[in-house]
TrEMBL record:
InterPro entries, per the entry: AAA+_ATPase, ABC_transporter-like_ATP-bd, ABC_Transporter_VariousFunc, P-loop_NTPase
Gene from which this protein is expressed: ecsA_1
Protein name (record): ABC-type transporter ATP-binding protein EcsA
GO MF term (any one): ATP binding
Record's keyword terms, sorted: ATP-binding, Nucleotide-binding, Transport
Species for this entry: Neorhodopirellula pilleata
Length: 243
């Protein structure tokens, strides 16, 4: 689970997130959406312990971020939109490194399975520096899947992936939810997260406009087609008008 209360993040005097509160229950797959600069990356990077909140309470996978940051880092995994890999390690060596850092046992069959699923098997012994952008993204995602984290934080995971990889990734995200992991996916590709996510967190200019089940958002704001795109435009334009 993810529980955020009155979360505020300032960069100097600039308020990037202004007292956001939302919850994502265990096993839910939530879309974190909002216009450019809304505070999505700031929120995700705070949830995984990379950024310190200016104020507020954050609980991730049962751990309070202020009291037990290591607990959060052990249980949550974050994939940034342009994941850094080690240029001098091969794909397989990345998986081996993760297995060793997190003391995983008998991880090899699962790692091989992930490479198959992500169509990376033939690149198993290729250096990261020789991979395409989409392949690097898939290696980073395979590394976090190998850990089986309780909470997965994915920042724009579909950017740069081809249609077949997007389909695979969506199936694999759904599998993570089915095994009980909580997933928060930040994305601008509304049509791609629409059918994947059962919860929604919509933010704009650092404030939460909606959080809760996707079905509720569709019913209340989705218009005749009940699409996430419609929810997005209704809520963000209403907020624009009320300024
Ligand atoms: N290190 C920083 N120093 C100062 N301001 C920052 C910093 N990082 C982000 N910001 C500002 O905080 C706000 C939120 O940025 P953030 O990257 O969280 O937004 P986002 O919703 O992820 O945007 P996008 O959809 O464009 O990726 C923006 O106005 C941004 O300029």
């Amino acid at each position: 689970m993810i529980a955020v209360e009155h979360f505020r993040k300032q960069y100097g005097d600039f308020v990037a997130v202004a007292g956001a509160s939302f919850e994502v229950p265990a096993g839910a797959i939530a879309a974190l959406v909002g216009p450019n600069g809304a505070g999505k990356t700031t929120t995700i990077r705070t949830l995984c312990g990379i950024l310190r909140p200016t104020s507020g309470t954050i609980r991730v996978a049962g751990c309070d971020l202020a009291d037990d940051p290591l607990g959060v880092k052990q249980r949550a995994a974050y994939v940034p939109d342009d994941p850094p890999l080690f240029d001098t390690l091969t794909v397989w060596e990345h998986l081996k490194f993760i297995a060793s850092a997190y003391r995983l046992v008998d991880w090899e069959p699962e790692a091989d399975g992930l490479l198959e699923q992500f169509e990376l098997a033939e690149k198993k012994h290729t250096l990261a520096s020789e991979l395409s952008r989409g392949m690097r993204q898939k290696v980073a995602i395979a590394c976090v899947y190998l850990r089986r984290p309780d909470v997965l934080l994915l920042d724009e995971p579909m950017t740069g992936l081809d249609p077949s990889s997007i389909r695979t990734l969506k199936e694999m995200i759904a599998q993570q939810g089915a095994r009980g992991a909580t997933v928060l996916v930040s994305s601008h590709l509304l049509s791609l997260v629409d059918d994947l996510c059962d919860h929604l967190v919509l933010i704009r200019r650092g404030s939460v406009l909606f959080h809760g089940p996707m079905s509720q958002a569709r019913r209340e704001f989705g218009g005749p087609n009940q699409s996430l795109e419609e929810v997005f435009f209704r809520l963000t334009s209403e907020a624009e008008r009320s300024v």
